[in-house]
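Subject: sequence -> structure tokens, single chain

Hey, anyone have a minute? Need the predicted structure for the following. Not urgent.
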Amino acid sequence: MNCFIHADLDAFYASVEQLDHPEYRGKPVIVGGLPGDRRSVVSTASYEARAFGVHSAMPIVQAYRLCPEGIYLRGRMARYREKSAVVMEIFSGFSFNVQQLSIDEAFLDISGAERVLGPPAEAAKKLKETVHQKTGLTLSVGLASNKYIAKIASGMSKPDGCFIIPPGGEEQFMRSLPVGKIWGAGEKTQELFRKHGFKTGDDIYRLPLDSLTAIFGSAFGNFLYRAVRGEGAASFDEERGSHSISAERTFPYDLYDEFAIETALFDICQNLMFRLLDLRWQSRTVALKIRYEDFSTESARETFSSPVSTMNELYERILGLFRKKYRAGRGIRLIGAGLLNLETGQGARQNELFDDGEEKERRLEETILEINHKFPGAALKRGRSWLAQSSAAAGTPNAGPGMQD
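Reply:
Had a minute. Here:
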């Protein structure tokens, strides 16, 4: 029988800051930028800050109006990656099949592991205890027979929660679920729910498929039909063997600010590049996935003549795809990127011409990535000023991003 855990670190960036700075504990911590950073957005808000209405993807300016007494910080990605690596290593001790979705969440497939881990409910609780003992961080987990429901379950009792859907209870859980908890339903879909008087999954369950597709469109109507019946209604891209790697980020609110979206892509590219280094493989093909507020999903890929050798280069290729593919003005619910058709090798470039500046830049970035890969605590990181320059060249105002060095 299939059995999945969705594990989600609680307010991860803010929790790391509170862990490292005891004086921040119990206080509203907002990570993403300082009050004077006009274009910065909230990356993570502690639960104390969320009580003021502050949430991820909110402009820092708005967060400051809601919570002027908050502690505002720029992020320390090297430190967050260091803590994330420890957590993911713990996950690997519980499952041979760990699918990391982002720096702070993953799926663990524990199907058939009862002989080693004990009953699934006990395994989920042990996972939480182990993460807390070894890192000081709290983890919310959801346990279910499919990933989609496990994802929802992990958010049902945050923070530090453990929510279990027993086998056979999937449909009952989804039918009793408030529509606001249906994962993947953005702001515009919630408006349709209100317009048609849908309050729980049961209200959706009672409609035939043709009625759902008439209201929500074919893609989302079919999605809802499956979801409220407890089926695996969303596909989380699997990394098949070692032939591809991918990462994605789902925003709690539809995101329209292109600069904030591009900053999220930058963080995703850092995640991918470190994993590529860990595999010691190379890739010439990059991929992009965009899911809009109406749940429609678009993807694109491009193969280059040379393999990706640096994080900056990966970001530039992904950003190029995004700017060609993105339908300006539409809200984005999820953004993802990947490296496909992985090949063995060290990514050496042959028969290419570089001027001295380009060659030095490439070597510098590779050195930084290698040092951070071997010594996560080194806290070395590529400067972000070039990102602002790139955005300005494309017509975006030149301003510092939410995540800075």
